[in-house]
């Protein structure tokens, strides 16, 4: 029964692609406007077979993962600090919110000006984008621990550090991992969007170059590669989540 939803999802994908293919062929839509899925698949295959896309995929993956590590680590640490210290929460929270309401795309040209061309501006923008979900989820999860369990730890004489490591973090792990899933998706989006501004490598740069050459099938091929990366990485986070939560779900 566990494979039933996956089969339905695959059937829906095939139905949508078939409708897309049929519509393009019957309506005679130009490849420049909307290529058929078969054309996109051939372009994607040839781009991978010739080795054209692989370096760009590697750059986008590196930017996404580095940005996720930097932004995620900062989000986790600051989330813990704000949850543990009401004073820090009152002092720093407005600045954290302010850093998020400023559009990152508007900052991208400044990052290029400050840090030059290459991967660094994109990594920094990606880190800023995926920082907030993990910070907010960590803060909320640690603040919502059962008060009775907190009181029990206090009665047993547990230190603040022991309470954090043995109660708050394990209890808040589902919420923290949910924030990680959101941060991962946003990291991929941030990496691709960052490549739109001044990057010469990466899948975002491929999309911009294909747009300039009016090569619509290549644009769709790059988008298909981005979608595949996103799905694979999201599934990887779900596997990680199940592995980390198994000791808590298997306990009687």
Automatic annotation (TrEMBL):
SUPFAM superfamilies registered for this protein in UniProt: MetI-like (SSF161098)
Source organism (scientific name): Bordetella trematum
Alphabetized UniProt keyword annotations: Cell membrane, Membrane, Transmembrane, Transmembrane helix, Transport
Topology term for the membrane: Multi-pass membrane protein
Gene Ontology biological process terms from the UniProt entry: transmembrane transport
UniProt-recorded name of the protein: ABC transporter permease
Organism taxonomic ancestry: Bacteria, Pseudomonadati, Pseudomonadota, Betaproteobacteria, Burkholderiales
Transmembrane segments: 59-83, 171-198, 218-240
Highest taxon of source: Bacteria
Domain ABC transmembrane type-1: 57-241
GO cellular component: plasma membrane
Family: Belongs to the binding-protein-dependent transport system permease family.
Places the protein is found: Cell membrane
A Pfam family that the UniProt record links to this protein: BPD_transp_1
PROSITE patterns (alphabetical): ABC_TM1
């Amino acid at each position: 029964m566990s494979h039933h939803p996956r089969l339905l999802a695959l059937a829906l994908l095939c139905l949508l692609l078939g409708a897309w293919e049929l519509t393009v062929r019957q309506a005679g839509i130009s490849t420049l406007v909307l290529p058929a899925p078969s054309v996109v698949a051939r372009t994607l295959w040839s781009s991978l077979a010739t080795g054209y896309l692989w370096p760009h995929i590697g750059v986008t993956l590196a930017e996404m993962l580095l940005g996720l590590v930097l932004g995620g680590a900062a989000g986790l640490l600051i989330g813990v600090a704000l949850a543990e210290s009401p004073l820090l929460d009152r002092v720093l929270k407005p600045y954290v919110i302010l850093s998020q309401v400023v559009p990152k795309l508007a900052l991208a040209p400044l990052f290029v000006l400050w840090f030059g061309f290459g991967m660094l501006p994109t990594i920094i923008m990606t880190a800023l984008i995926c920082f907030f979900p993990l910070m907010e989820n960590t803060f909320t999860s640690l603040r919502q621990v059962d008060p009775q369990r907190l009181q029990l730890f206090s009665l047993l004489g547990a230190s603040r550090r022991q309470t954090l490591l043995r109660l708050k973090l394990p209890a808040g792990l589902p919420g923290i991992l949910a924030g990680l899933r959101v941060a991962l998706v946003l990291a991929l989006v941030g990496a691709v969007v960052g490549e739109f501004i001044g990057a010469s490598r990466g899948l975002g740069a491929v999309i911009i170059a294909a747009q300039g050459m009016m090569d619509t099938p290549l644009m769709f091929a790059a988008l298909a590669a981005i979608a595949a990366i996103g799905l694979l990485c999201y599934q990887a986070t779900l596997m990680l989540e199940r592995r980390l939560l198994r000791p808590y779900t298997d306990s009687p």
